[in-house]
Write a structure and sequence with these properties.
By secondary structure, this protein is α+β, with helices and mostly antiparallel strands. It has three helices and two strands, in the order αβαβα. 40% of the residues lie in helices and 14% in strands.
Length: 72
């Protein structure tokens, strides 16, 4: 699990190692940005780290919650 407010950065070297670890260990990363749409924007750190990133503003929105569970 990763928690971030996206006020961080990662180096290209770190990203290469991250992607290589994902490849070697065979895992994918799903991210959920809750109530912070900028964290899920293109070019964000979380967007770079995740294979699939969703943004949810309100968990009482049945469609948004259903989308997450369909994905998983």
């Amino acid at each position: 699990m990763m928690l971030t407010d996206d006020d961080c950065g990662v180096t290209e070297e770190w990203m290469r190692a991250w992607n290589e670890s994902k490849r070697l260990l065979g895992f994918r990363v799903f991210g959920v940005a809750i109530g912070a749409p900028r964290v899920a924007e293109e070019g964000s750190v979380l967007e770079a780290l995740c294979d699939n990133l969703r943004s949810v503003e309100d968990f009482t929105d049945v469609q948004a919650a259903a989308d997450l569970f369909r994905l998983i």
